[in-house]
Design a protein that fits this description.
203 residues; alpha+beta; Aminopeptidase; seven-stranded mixed sheet; 33% helix
Amino acid sequence: MRLLRARSLLLGATPPELRQALRKGRDQLQRFDSRLRSALPEALGGRFSQGALICRPLTDDDLPSFAGRPGQPKQVTLGPRCFGIGVVLHGELIAWGLCVGLGPRDEEPLEHVLLMASYVLPKFRRRGVARRLIAARLETAAARGARVAFVRALKNNGASIAALEASGFERVAPAQEPAWLEGARADQVLLTYSLERVAAAVM
C-alpha cells in the first residue's frame, strides 16, 4: 500500500517536486549505507580504523593522479599558497585534496584557506576516508597559521554537506559571504570553519 501511494504521488508530481523526492531518497539511501558500514568490520567494507589511514603532504609526483578525475583541476602548482594532503592505505594513494590560500598574495602566514579538489577513489567511499581527509587538511592549515577555512559544496549533494557539517563546518548565508571570496555559484553553498579550535587542540 505504501509503495502504491508513493508511486501515485510521483506520477502526479511536477518536475521540481520529482527532483526533490529523488534527492530525498538518495540522501536516505546514503545515510542507511553509512550506518550499515559503521556496523561492519573493515574487512567486509566497514569504516577504516584511524590507524589504517596515513595522511601525508602531496608532492609533484602525486599530481598525475588528478588527471582525468571528475572535478579535478587540469593544472596544479604546489607552493606556499597551495598545498595538498593525500590519504594512503597500504601504500596506495586513495584520496587527496587541496588547500588554497585566500586574500592578498603577500599575506603571511595564510589567514584564510579554501578547501577544494577533494577526491576519494570510488571503491573507498563512505568508509570514513573523506572525513579523515577533511581533518588532515584543517590540521595542516591551522599549523600554517590560518584562522578560517572555507569550502563550497553543491546544494544537491546532501551527503557531502552532511559530512562537512558533521566535521564542524557551518553554512554561510549568501548575504554574509565575504566580498573578496570569488567563485560563488548559484548551485553551491558556502561553509566555514574556525581553525582556532584546531590550533588550540594541537597545542
